[in-house]
Amino acid sequence: MGKQLDTLLKEARTFEPPPAFKRRAHVKSKAAYRDAQRRLDYWAKHARTLEWYKPWKKVLDWKPPHAKWFVGGKLNASVNCLDRHVATATRNKAALLWEGEPGDRRVFTYWELHREVNRFASALKSLGVKRGDRVAIYLPMIPEAAIAMLACARIGAPHSVVFGGFSSEALRDRINDAQAKALITADIGYRRGQRVQLKKNVDGALEKTPSIEHVIVVQRDGKPAPETRMKAGRDHWYHDVMADAATYCKPAIMDAEDTLYILYTSGTTGKPKGIVHTTGGYMTQAVATTKLVFDLKDDDVYWCMADVGWVTGHTYVVYGPLALGATVVMYEGAPDWPEKNRTWDIVERYGVTVFYTAPTAIRAFMKWGAEYPKGHDLSTLRLLGTVGEPINPEAWMWYHRYIGNKRCPIVDTWWQTETGGIMLTPLPGVTKTKPGSATVPFPGVEADLVDSDGQSVKVGGGFLVLTSPWPGMLRTIYGDDQRFKDQYWSRYPGVYFTGDGAKRDKDGYFWVLGRVDDVLNVAGHRIGTMEVESALVAHPAVAEAAVVGRPHDVKGEVVVAFAILRAGHDPSDALLAELKEHVVRKIGAIARPADVFFTADLPKTRSGKIMRRLLRDIATGRALGDVTTLADPSVVASLKQRYEETEE
Predict the structure, then answer these.
(1) Residues 39-61: pLDDT tens digits?
(2) Is 348 a member of any domain?
(3) Judgement on whether residues 415 and 555 belong to the same structural domain of the protein
(4) What is the rounded distance in angstroms from the CA atom of residue 411 to the CA atom of residue 427?
(5) Residue 267 phi/psi, 5° resolution?
(6) Which domain holds residue 563?
(7) What percent of the chain has pLDDT over 70?
(8) Residues 357 and 208 in one domain
């Protein structure tokens, strides 16, 4: 990897922002880097762009590893996304332009969205949901997803959005960890022409979720799906609870440090982590980064392709752009359904000006061919973004040439569920870019690269860390503050360990390489190896399992599993298929192993630790290197031979 990156650093061309874009660039962008030298004043300036019921007394109270931002300040996220706009001409501006996979479309102005959010907030209160209660959301990418999030924020009930592609068991685990009181779902959703049975998944999850008192179900097609079952007293149709709901719900006055939402992300222990984000700091970073990174104007049509089940959908589909009064495109389905030009149909139809997607999607676009975007008018595009995982320079250049027509700046952003908002990025019209590099920290963010001893690496490779608190940072892991301390703050005391490896070039630009812990990045989605391993060993045929990632030219990584079978079970194609489907049922389709290799043993150190490095070497066909530390070196040779035979 080191030699490959060094070559890219030498060959990568530095891109100047085009003159046409410079004229539109945010006039204060260059000053942002200078102003950020006074970091707390800088963040306070952005916080003042929000509406507060009560001003803060102190910008930051930092007792490592715990931070409190805008101490004593009071606000409401829903008010900042809606109420302040409906008092102006923005009330008649389109807030959401929604398109379903089958082709159905809906438009919500800010006034209409405000009314729907208030009605649903009133409906939740009528069901007994109160401030502090957790609410789980398990919906497809339909307007009701944003409405539900904002309604929860309005009444001060932290929401926990669960990706609609997750299984019943994954949903159950997240509901139980958060002790959610209510669940919002839909009867079905659509994905690649298939009807996704969301309510059926919910019914499976709720067999063991004692905290759930109410389930609100959206009729995706405006009529009940015939296979949907409703439990009397617990389940309610969305349109029924909305029928008599008040059109105004008084917003809860929230402390800046009150929890806005909990979002679960994979960890290395098999148990997903409930990342806690609070209101004042998170909203400040969401607004600041959306404004500066995407340079949004009043006439922009902005499309972030992320699902709200992931943090990108929280920050850059809902809270950031709506707080700025932007027009946001939401799309339910796959980017290539029913044709590979679906994405470009949407860009052309709505006149999208700012487009934010993942490297996985860009590599898929490359694979499908340049003829698809060439057949569409993409002249409205003025800015492109990429998020979710490192982007390879080849994909960056293709994006620049065929989508941006060599005139649109590209903002290559790095951040995490835990950071809440963008941390490394160029500023359009200001920062020179290099294909494949997330460039430099966002103003007000302090990042560094360190070696295993915590010493700063000025040029070369190391571990990416954040050396000072930032407003959108996670406050804890829900219900497990010790895990929060151990996972993020114990390796380098007082310094946030991101878990990502990176290189820094002579110009100070960061090149993020990917995870250094046991978390896989599959199509931009973080999947814990332990979570997949736990799912495999839950199958009666599997005694032990180890999971690693294998590079994939579209998805970034795919899951590869090694399994030891219990006595009485023999390897077979049928069992292999069964194990793959078992993982899907336990976690979701995103975690489906690309390969499962059966083995008599796993390579371990003498202390019993599985040597995943060697398994990665086997899965990718690389040379194995030194195996003298293995309890039984012949195991590696056997696995390698088995892998090579399978590949023939």
Answers:
(1) 999 999 999 999 999 999 999 99
(2) yes
(3) no
(4) 7
(5) -125, -175
(6) 519-647
(7) 89
(8) yes
